[in-house]
TrEMBL record:
Marked site: Important for catalytic activity: 140
Chain positions recorded as NAD(+) binding sites: 10-15, 33, 92, 97, 119, 143, 274
InterPro entries tied to this protein: 3-OHacyl-CoA_DH, 3-OHacyl-CoA_DH_CS, 3-OHacyl-CoA_DH_NAD-bd, 3HC_DH_C, 6-PGluconate_DH-like_C_sf, 6PGD_dom2, NAD(P)-bd_dom_sf
GO molecular function: 3-hydroxybutyryl-CoA dehydrogenase activity; NAD+ binding
Single Gene Ontology BP annotation: butyrate metabolic process
Assigned EC number: 1.1.1.157
Superkingdom of the source species: Bacteria
Name the record gives this protein: 3-hydroxybutyryl-CoA dehydrogenase
Ranges where the 3-hydroxyacyl-CoA dehydrogenase C-terminal domain occurs: 186-282
Pathway membership, UniProt: Lipid metabolism; butanoate metabolism
Enzyme class: oxidoreductase
UniProt keyword list: NAD, Oxidoreductase
Length: 283
């Protein structure tokens, strides 16, 4: 399975990061979103990231330009017609994802692998929307994609071994460390991370400590780069809530019950860094 052309669906924070690291490793990339303004915003994020590398003298201007030159913007799903790999990083909504995968299944060449960057939705269910479930796989990158080393690779029930190996090799070619996991709610990363974040929100809700104190304990006491409430703001409180709900529904165990304070913040539109306010305020 020779992967040369990669199409990334969704030009948000994750999609643009994935497109960036693919282009940096020499792949020809198509960065796709529904509207031109979304694609432009994604290209803007990539440009800013690469320019910062140039300013720090970690990358030449020529290199930056050739990386940007390898990323082609798209608002036409038909551009998947000659892709070897499609990585979907659209919104976390099963209906949208299954519709998208059914369409991609029709458009993409027979040999193409269809991967999803979903953070918690079942790969097996996404795969069932296609006629090629053996070529569907989870490729879960971490935010910020250009910095974080992990790619959690999720095998769906039907994922073929050679597809797994191709994605493992491809992830290594991106200078990432692939880790194999099976298809269960939240996989490994969010099954462990989100209950910790949710517990931090409960700790705040129950008045055990201030938000700053909770973050400081975990940052300095456990050597985490960010405290859990800062991290929740960084990930997005709506995303955190959605993943907790997926865990709660998937396992049916009350230990995954989302904290009412998390719900309240999301209802208020306090979604974290992206909306200017979450547990903290951002200017
Ligand atoms: N995009 C690209 N590069 C970025 C960046 C971004 N958004 N933010 C920081 N960087 C780069 C900086 O340019 C810098 O690069 P150089 O070393 O080349 O100079 C480097 O990262 C370090 O940045 P800073 O010195 O500014 O800041 P820092 O040392 O505090 O690191 C951080 C920032 C990497 C975000 C760090 O705080 C961290 O690791 N936080 C935890 C992140 C985390 O846990 N991510 C996983 C979230 S969960 C997830 O993604 C999965 C899910 O499904 C929800």
């Amino acid at each position: 399975m020779d992967i040369k052309k990669v199409m990334v669906i969704g030009a948000g924070q994750m999609g643009s990061g994935i497109a960036q690291v693919c282009a940096m490793s020499g792949y020809n990339v198509v960065l796709h979103d529904l509207k031109q303004e979304f694609v432009d915003r994604g290209m803007g994020i990539i440009n800013k990231n690469l320019s910062r590398q140039v300013e720090k003298e970690k990358m030449s201007e020529d290199n930056k330009n050739s990386i940007l030159g390898r990323i082609n913007p798209s608002t036409e799903l038909n551009n998947a017609a000659d892709a070897d790999l499609v990585i979907e990083a659209a919104v976390e909504n099963m209906e949208i994802k299954t519709k998208l995968f059914a369409q991609l299944d029709e458009i993409a060449p027979e040999h193409a692998i269809l991967a999803s960057n979903t953070s918690s939705l079942p790969i097996t269910e996404i795969a069932a929307a296609t006629k090629r479930p053996e070529k569907v796989i989870g490729m879960h990158f971490m935010n910020p994609v250009p910095v974080m080393k992990l790619v959690e690779i999720i095998r769906g029930l039907a994922t073929a071994n050679e597809v797994y190996t191709a994605i493992e090799d491809m992830s290594k070619s991106l200078n990432k460390v692939p880790v194999e996991v099976n298809d269960f709610p939240g996989f490994v990363s969010n099954r462990i991370l989100m209950p910790m974040i949710n517990e931090a929100v409960y700790t705040l809700y129950e008045g055990v400590a201030s938000k700053e104190a909770i973050d400081e304990v975990m940052k300095l006491g456990m050597n985490h780069p960010m405290g859990p409430l800062t991290l929740a703001d960084f990930i997005g409180l709506d995303t955190c809530l959605y993943i907790m709900e997926t865990l709660h529904e998937g396992f049916g165990d009350d230990k995954y019950r989302p904290c009412p304070l998390l719900r309240k913040y999301v209802k208020a539109g306090w979604l974290g860094k992206k909306s200017g306010r979450g547990f903290y305020e951002y200017s």
